[in-house]
Each structure stands twice: as C-alpha cells, then as structure tokens.
Amino acid sequence: MKAKFHHFGVPTTVKGSKETFLEDAGVYITDPESHPYSVEFLRFTPDSPMPDPIKKTPHAAFVVPSLDEAIKGKQVILPPMEVSPTLRVAFIKDGDALMEVMEMKE
Questions:
Q1: Relative to the CA of 97, which of 4, 5, 34, 57 has its CA 20 to 30 Å away?
Q2: Is 4-104 in CATH node 2.40.40.20?
Q3: How far apart are CA 12 and CA 82, in angstroms?
Q4: pTM of the prediction?
Q5: What percent of the chain has pLDDT over 70?
Q6: CA distance 98 to 28
Q7: In whole angstroms, what is the distance from residue 100 CA to residue 77 CA?
C-alpha cells in the first residue's frame, strides 16, 4: 500500500494562532497546510480522552488509500475515527514510531 506524507504532528502546551478545537478529542490543532514545513501543533485539554502516546509523542501522518488495510497487523493506539464527513484517521505504532494514518474520502 502506497502512503503519502501529509504532516508532522507535535504536542505542545503553547496556544497557537488559528487553532481549531476538536471537542470529542479534547484537542486544539493548527493547520499543517499553512505551516511552511507541514507541522501541525496539538494542544490537549486536561481532560482529553486521547491516549497518552498521542498527547506526548510527535507523530508523522500519512494519507493512505484504505485505513482498514493500513492498520492490519499494526499496534493500534487509536482505532479509526471519523474526524469529518471526508476524513477518517487512526494512530498506530511501528517500532518506536507513532504514526497517524488518514483516509480522505471524495
């Protein structure tokens, strides 16, 4: 399966400009497409339900054609979730690397 790099995610405690709040995840995110190096900053609320590895570890994010195929046989940290009507994501570990896999629907 071919994966395409999308962004690098970095947990932070510093409020960024133009953050978007994802209520279900308890996280404020910046837009990696507006960053010159495709960095997304993630600032978690104290009661965020997200798993600790996501709150504490930087991650690389990749767009994949099939989220279900991408997570087969992997250590799943966060099972697939629908972020929007056009985006499903999951977090997996491969060795010590934390990765977000993203399926974008048409």
A1: 34
A2: no
A3: 23
A4: 0.93
A5: 100
A6: 19
A7: 10
